[in-house]
Amino acid sequence: MKILVVEDDKTVGDYVRRGLDEAGYHVDLVGDGDEGLRRASGRGAGYDMMVLDLRLPKLSGIDVLRTLRDRGVGLPVLVLTAQDSVDFKVQALRMGADDYVTKPFAFEELLARVEALGRRPKAIAPPTLKVNGLVLDTGSREVTRDGKPIELTPKEYAVLEYLMRHQGRVMSRTLITEYAWDYHFDPGTNIVDVVITRLRKKIDHAKEPKLIHTVRGVGYVVRA
Amino acid sequence: MTVWYATALILSIGVFAVVLYFSRRSATYQDLDRRIQSEADLTAGILAESYHARGVLVEKDTAGRPVLVQEVAAVLEVVPDFLLVTSRDGRLLFASPDARALTFAEFEQLNAITGPPDASARLPGRFRIEPNGPTLHYLVRPVPDAGEQFGAIFAAADTRDAELRLEQLLTTILIAFVVGVVPAIFVGRWIAGRALEPVDQMITEVREITDGRTLHRRLAVPMERDELGRLAETLNQMMARLERNFAALRRFTADASHELKTPLTVVRAGVERAITRPDVPPETLAPLEETLQEVNRMTELLDSLLTLARADEGRAELHREPVDLREIIAEAGETGELLAEHAGVGMEIRLPPEPVVVSVDRSRVRQLALNLIENAVKYTPRGGQVSVELAGSDGRGVFTVADTGIGIAPGDLPHIFDRFWRADSARTRTSERAGTGLGLAISKWIAEAHGGTIEVQSRPGRGTTFTVGLPRV
Fold first, then answer.
1. Is residue A124 less than 8 Å (CB to CB) from chain B?
2. Domain A128-222, what architecture?
3. What does each C-alpha distance from A91 to A10, A61, A103 come to in angstroms?
4. Interface pTM (ipTM) of the complex?
């Protein structure tokens, strides 16, 4: 699957390209609107999706979008914008954008929206996540350990899913919070600690081996 | 306006009437004084001429009393008012018909003035004949050119006529006052109303142009280039300037949001890339995690500022959709339970069995609920209790967040919705970082932007209750 990323800021552009690369996409990065429009509407380029920054040199994102749609190009477009006002988003959607992500964004959010737009099975999320005897079914949202069902609240489920999806990797509290609380919530307390305490009672209590591990000062990791 | 006009009118007419009355009064009494003066002078002249012509002017009447000779007395008979002529030794020689008409007791009162030998040295004056007689103005003068026979001439006039005329004048003034002023006030009010009508209209128009959305509107400028026309033009110029400033502010807001958020995105991207690498040692992860937290705090602060800036302009939009408030409160409530558990505070959530559907911006109301619940937990000491309750009443969805926390001092209550307002730092648990100070300001805006209300009741040491009402649409 080929994605065209149009972003003038090099750091952000590189970051998006590398992240999407890792997620298994083929990514081309261009730095201005003219070039983006040329590539996207050129025949044979064969892009499946475009990630478009709205503020670009030469030709603005809105103009790129409008011209593309005027030319009848139906390529799915995900817009990156610093404007989080509703009317601006509405304007972008009316211009033919398919979705948007507000800067600054968590890569997880961008990836989730790219996946949704691409309408394909999640590359890094097989329907069932397994760590040792702990099984999480992302379809039915059912969790079992050693075959016994475990009841989880929505936030507990979200935190566990995130950790299991990145099993073996230390996930910081902030990243976990962002994922489980819709990316824009900063309670100022380590609310994740509370969820982890609950999860441990339900998952690791009187069981061996322990699956949820604390990394002091940073966050948590799920591994066998 | 009308009251001022009426007051001024009444005052000026009143002053006019008082001045008129008193000047008439003093003129009337001066006339009276001149009259008795001329009567006395005339009498003195007649006596002097008669003396030159005849010498002796006193004769004895049939009872042997001295009187003025018949011929002279006959001349003096025609003098009106009160006229007395006395001899050198104070005896009465002549009294005019008016004086003779008095009763004896009354007459004696006149005599008391003319009787004494030095009577002619008296100054003019006034007195009232008791018990029921008229008030008299009098004067006494000597008779120098009539030999040694006469003591003094006493002339007096009563003020009854004069007072009657003054009373009539007063009545006339009063009637004219009532008849003139009352209609003048009503007419004045009508005229003022007519003159001010365009001003009223202008006030209404200006009031309608309240926020950034309607600033492009202008007042209608009347055809006449009078004061009102110039006022309308001036206001229009002012609004044009305001409109330009608002546009500049909007541009600045948009630019600032982009200029600040792009570097934040860059920082965030760098940190996130580093923090998610599988091989980073934990001692490197910790500072990265702190940086990420800080980036999020800055993002949140920036979003709050931009939200309020747009709200000030009247441009903050709501994306309304029908929402069951139970979902929002339940979700915020779960977060609240987690926060409460962390803080050692009890949390109770009561939801009604039936849906409470309102047309609101889901993410905004979620933010509002989270703000209030978070605050309640933050300001409630360990062992306290936070209760969240949702109820659907007629036409409104109402939720309350009540805590048993430290409460808010009465003096602070009016300020808690102010931007960047914080009670003294002793309020928060020291282990926690303070918020942005914008949470309640934004909460208030969210509630009011939906046409709803937010209210607070609090007693220091007992707890605080926030009540939010959102209209069902």
1. no
2. Orthogonal Bundle (1.10)
3. 26, 12, 17
4. 0.72
